[in-house]
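Morning F.,

Quick status update on the modeling queue. The single chain you submitted on Monday has been processed. Sequence for confirmation:
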Amino acid sequence: MPRFAPWPERRPAVVTGASSGIGRAVAEALAALGHPVVLGARRVDACEEAAAAIRSSGGEAAAVHLDLADPTSVERFAAAAVESLGEVEIIVSNAAQNRAGAVLDTAPVAFEGVLDVNVSGTHRLVRSLLPDLVARRRGDVVFVTSDVVERPRPTMAAYVASKWGLEGYVRALQMELEGTGVRATIVRPGPTLTGMGMDWDPDVTAQVIDRWALWGFARHSGFMRPAGVAQAIVAAVSLPRGTHATVIELQPEAPVLPVPDQPDREEDP
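Structure tokens below.
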């Protein structure tokens, strides 16, 4: 049987897109287990608010500005993370951009912008932080994708393409990391109550939802809470060495329906 050195007691983590939603919930959940966390996002003030709350509860946390579309910002973020809390053991790549728009309605520059953040920006982050994990022969990197990879939706051309591309990227990375002691995990959430898409025009949002319903993407009104998705990510990075969660898909549980009235049945003679 292969032997793996146990995880160190202190496993600093970086979480991108940590100003709200899933990213913030992940940072809070990791900190609650004693992991030092670096929260990164463009809205660094919101990250600092979350980091301050973690520190007030006795955890270790730092907030650092991060813009995945800016290579210099990514390099500064990686350096600041190590300087703040030490060698990174866990990377949670969660930041993403979403833009409503059908294929023919999406300008090339807007399309490229989404891919630049969601795919190229992720690659910038990986190139900045992952080599050190490989050199130490241990660590976890988690990529938050979307169930649009399995169930593409209309009027989200750029987002769907970016998440398909990201999962292909991670699948290749998983093969390349085999034998390095570093685990790469895909976490694929379904509908979740986050701030993503909340800046869309309300009329556009209504049109998008109507189109989704036509294709059966609104079976029920249930949405997951970010804390639930965060628990799945924490579970993946908490697995003992020698066990690798490659893909985790999460879906909202349907609201519980009342028990239907049962017709009276005659007893058998």
